[in-house]
Amino acid sequence: MFVVAHFISALATMLGMVLEFYTWVLVARAVLSWVNPDPYNPIVQFLYRVTEPVLDPVRRRMGLGMGMDLAPMVVILVIMFLKQFLVRSLYDLANRLQ
Known about the structure:
The protein has helices spanning 2-32, 42-62, 71-97. By secondary structure, the protein is mostly helical.
């Protein structure tokens, strides 16, 4: 049973790292929205390609409010919830299986 526990623990660690990385990608995308970046820059293209599939549905559900794009903040809050609930739950499950 300890093998399953270690697998779940490793899965929780990887999920936490991916969520942390995506949070920083969203922060970089939000900072870029304050300036006028070169749309042909490969880093800018990467940030838009990675974040737009998540941000666009959130924007459509929220509508336009106050002229500010709050979608990155909403997604970051969801990521924080997932890190607190899902990742911690996976760690607790792994600890109970040992």
